Amino acid sequence: MVTWVAVVTLSVDLGLAVGVVFSMMTVVCRTQRVQCLALGLAEGTELYRPLRESHKFLQVPGLCILSYPTPLYFGTRGQFRRILEWHLGLGERGKETPKPDGPPDAVAEPIRVVVLDCSGVTFADAAGAREVVQLASRCRDAGIHLLLAQCNASVMRTLTWAGLLDTVTPEQLFVSVQDAAAHALERLELAGPKTCTVWV
């Protein structure tokens, strides 16, 4: 509709240009409004689903599983940093990190392991990749064990180029959230299922 109105009121060339610019702005605005989802274990299964979908999903004390379902690039890196700081308690001392849209209740026990589900990160540029590397470094300094799950090949190449493997080891990279959670449970010395299914 925007393109049609622009073509009618201006000209064909200008109208098409307005349509392209408007589409790009729409994509950017949508990525800015995406929420980071905290995941919990669906009772009786090995599936991890957004906690806001039900109050019956299980949370393990000391374990935080987060899903960031949007491309990670220069336009979203600030939002990514603020959201992760709030969930993990990594805000600067003396400054209150703004509360993002997300689950209403925070986990009282300090987080010891965090699993970042990257299945929704379809693309990452150099700026976004450096943000992940900085997050990994801050988690390490804070004593939080960071695990990455379901990174696609393109995103993994960008993260590696940005120096991710200088901060984390290959043992902290997993093909599924279930495998990462099982490793986290072992690290937290909790009894949990040893076999994992692939969530598709």
TrEMBL record:
An individual GO BP term: transmembrane transport
Entry-linked Pfam families: STAS (PF01740)
InterPro entries membership: SLC26A/SulP_fam (IPR001902), STAS_dom (IPR002645), STAS_dom_sf (IPR036513)
GO cellular component annotations of the record: membrane
Species this protein is from: Loxodonta africana (African elephant)
Entry superkingdom: Eukaryota
Entry protein name: STAS domain-containing protein
Every STAS domain range: 53-184
Record CDD domains: STAS_SulP_like_sulfate_transporter
